[in-house]
Amino acid sequence: MPEKEETRKIQFTGKSSYIVSLPKKWVTDLGLKRGDQVRMARQGAGALQLYPPRLRAEGPKKEDATIEIGADEETASTVRKLISLYFLGYGTIHVRPRSRRLGPGQRTAVKHAVKRMLMGAEIIEDSGGGMTVRVMVQQRELTVDGAFKRMIHLAKSMLADAVRAAGEGDRDLAREVISTDDEVDRFGFYIIRQLKTAIENEHMLKEMGLGSARSCLGYRLVVKNIERTGDHAALIAQDLLECGRGFGGEVRGRIGEMCSFSVSVLDDACLAMFKGDYAQAEETIRRAAGVSGYERAVVEASNRLGDPLEVYRVRRTTEGVRRIAEYASDIAEIVLNMTIEKALKKG
């Protein structure tokens, strides 16, 4: 008999009702309680499927978590603990001093982390005696699909703005690109939190339209590639702030063409992911290889520059733009792995 299979005795109650008890662990794992309703669906002639009508968006309730920090603990360590508990799906996280009070630097670090990194989190208690962070936003308010689309849009906009700022020498636009990188990371952390919830609960998995727990690993890797796209855009913008001047002439135009190509390939890869389209993912990988031609055109144009520092900056910017096309190819490969079985069945 399979490990998860159980035998339950059918009982008769009243004049016409048959009842069967539910396994306690199944009920508690789903966060159900007395009075909650469940749905039943007949599967063929001899099977009955039982499942809750809709799980609460955050899944089964977790106990509140508490972080105790010492007076000499590094703020970076506290922030890492906070992010880890956010990933694990805790709705309320308490930050308490191990002795005496939280230092001003520790409190500031927690505030910045909540504001810049944790989607839907708010500080509801703040004093030297401790801080409390509560996650307010729920999955129905911001779906994984919606968060993915917003994250991808921001990353693409960052790259386009970074290249434009580098070409025009627009320092204000460069600063805006760098600040937007935090927003990309916030959406990424939120998606990881939701994927973690889905892995623990197959019904939440279906609610999110993710298909299987195995797909969550693929989506996690996609998140990482989108985060890297934002990081490279921020590096291009940072280069402008450090050097103080943009590119001009032919180089500017060539980099713009290369950027447009990389963004279009990223678009194709993400569209293949949302559609679950194996053929489009294959085509995206083929197209992504074409970025080398655009890179050669930029290098040839940069060779005509007289300033070695400018040549170095062009090469560094070009490398960042090329990486975007490579990340798009990586996303397309993830889509291939996620859709190969469906493609074979169609074949």
How would you describe what is shown here?
The protein is α+β, with helices and mostly antiparallel strands and 347 residues long. The protein has 3 domains: 41 residues; 71 residues, Alba-like domain (Translation Initiation Factor IF3), CATH 3.30.110.20; 203 residues, Phosphate transport system protein phou homolog 2, domain 2 (Methane Monooxygenase Hydroxylase, Chain G, domain 1, Up-down Bundle). The strands form 3 sheets. The protein has a 4-stranded mixed sheet, covered by helices on one side. The longest helix is centred in the last third of the chain and has 39 residues. The chain is flat, with a radius of gyration of 25 Å. The two termini are 35 Å apart. About 1% of the residues have low confidence.
Secondary-structure map with pairings?
Blueprint: E1 11-13, E2 17-19, H1 24-29, E3 39-43, E4 47-51, E5 65-69, H2 75-87, E6 92-97, H3 104-117, E7 121-127, E8 130-135, H4 144-168, H5 171-200, H6 202-207, H7 213-243, H8 249-275, H9 278-288, H10 291-302, H11 308-346
Parallel strand pairs: 5-6
Antiparallel strand pairs: 1-2, 3-4, 6-8, 7-8
Helix pairs in contact: 2-3, 4-5, 4-7, 4-8, 5-7, 7-11, 8-9, 8-10, 8-11, 9-11, 10-11
